[in-house]
Amino acid sequence: MKRLCFGGSFNPIHHGHLLIARAAAEAAGYDRVVLIPSAQPPHKPGAADLAPAADRLAMCRLAAETAEASDLFEVNDLELRRHGPSYTIDTARELTRQGFGVVHWLIGTDTLPLLRTWHEPDALLREVHFVVVARPGWQTDWTAVQPAYLPLRQNVVTAPLIEISATDIRRRVAAGRSIDYLTPQPVISYIREQGLYRPAGSLEPE
């Protein structure tokens, strides 16, 4: 079984994540997508609007269990069971020890310029097979990509342009606006029930 790992803060997970990951998996021939929520995202230390890791994990599980997603998605909580920043290289090595073999990891073209800032970037290139998802209209300036990362160009797959962002969802919740159709209904219910992303002291509207 070919598995494609998809890590992130998922704050919260939404339909954009699911649709893009499905498109990438289908284009590159993967059987499953493994959602791996970060416990402590290294590039978002102390983010004020970052929901607790346990809540983000719960929302990923709710999304993966829906009828339209359960055929492809599963969730792995290994980053929540580890202390310290959630470095991708540490996760990949643990997955290899669990029997994944070479770990295949999904990133966006917007992440390419940042890969060199990730923990142990040289080891990442040696030990992880990156699948790079590009969206229509997004132009990657490969001349600006460092030579070590140019081989990733052959791993690019195209996904639909989905204009949904977790930032917008959080802002809508904070403003008391609907997030229907932006994320699976069980996730919407969870956000409401747990009071996530709402200003301190605010009340759920009647």
Task: Provide structural commentary.
The protein is an alpha/beta fold and 206 residues long. It contains six helices and six strands. The protein has helices at residues 15-28, 53-64, 88-100, 121-127, 166-174, 185-194; strands at residues 3-8, 32-37, 73-75, 103-108, 128-134, 156-158. A six-stranded parallel sheet has the order 3-2-1-4-5-6. Strand 1 (3-8), helix 1 (15-28) and strand 2 form a beta-alpha-beta unit. The longest helix has 14 residues, at 15-28.
Topology:
Blueprint: E1 3-8, H1 15-28, E2 32-37, H2 53-64, E3 73-75, H3 88-100, E4 103-108, H4 121-127, E5 128-134, E6 156-158, H5 166-174, H6 185-194
Parallel strand pairs: 1-2, 1-4, 2-3, 4-5, 5-6
Helix pairs in contact: 2-6, 3-4
Nutshell version of this structure?
This protein is of the alpha/beta class and 206 residues long. It has helices at 15-28, 53-64, 88-100, 121-127, 166-174, 185-194; strands spanning 3-8, 32-37, 73-75, 103-108, 128-134, 156-158.
Distance between the termini: 47 Å
Catalogue the unreliable spans. none
Number of helices: 6
Compute the gyration radius: what is it?
Answer: 17 Å
Overall form: globular
CATH 4th-level superfamily: HUPs
Q: Per DSSP, what share of the residues sits in E-state strands of 2 or more residues?
A: 15-25%
- SSE order: EHEHEHEHEEHH
Broad structural category: alpha/beta
The CATH class assignment is: Alpha Beta
Q: How would a textbook summarize the main sheet?
A: 6 strands, parallel
Domain count: the total is 1
